[in-house]
Amino acid sequence: MLNWSELEKAVNECKKCELYKMRNNIVMGDGDKKADLLIISEAPGKQEDLTGKPFVGKSGLLLDKILASVDLKRDEIYLANIVKCRPPNNRNPKESERQLCLPYLRNQFALIKPKIIVCLGRVSAQTIIEPSFKITKQRGIWYERKNCLIIATYHPAALLRDSTKKRDVWEDFKNIKSKYDELKKTQL
Ligand code: URA
Ligand code: SF4
User: Fold this and answer.
1) Ligand 1 atom at minimum distance from 59 CA
2) CATH number at residue 134
3) pLDDT, tens digit, for every residue of 155-173?
């Protein structure tokens, strides 16, 4: 297992999949490196690739609103993606790319030791929870792996395409926040 600076260096130099060819910046993730809550999304988009930070584009603005609606702040959680380099034209990262990049996320998980993981969108849930994950049927359900609670909800980009999903996401985040508060209480 690598420490944070070794990990950052390894990802910066990574050429394991072809996504390295077009990247301007890797996007490791951002937030509290000791967070109890880890949000895992899919891949960097255009703005993320340009800045090296996760969720700084349109989806990021919406994510901020969702977090604020349940009184969660970016600086108390950690945000990461399945793949660290932007796929061309924001296509879904391929299965091979996800598997090649996953060890970095596993290393991040081992360093952060979160108690709750939130998967944003189908690609994340299928990679983290199970390959056959159906986001419309299985979102909002708690799973448990390695002493960590895991839940999936829609990706903010899906809400930008279909605003009828907003209510479900809000319900999911209320559920996440109450579990998070519960865990915080038992830690005191
Ligand atoms: N969408 C993602 O899945 N991740 C980001 O970091 C930004 C947008
Ligand atoms: Fe390496 Fe991941 Fe970037 Fe592929 S996406 S080059 S595996 S860091």
Assistant:
1) 8
2) 3.40.470.10
3) 999 999 999 999 999 999 9
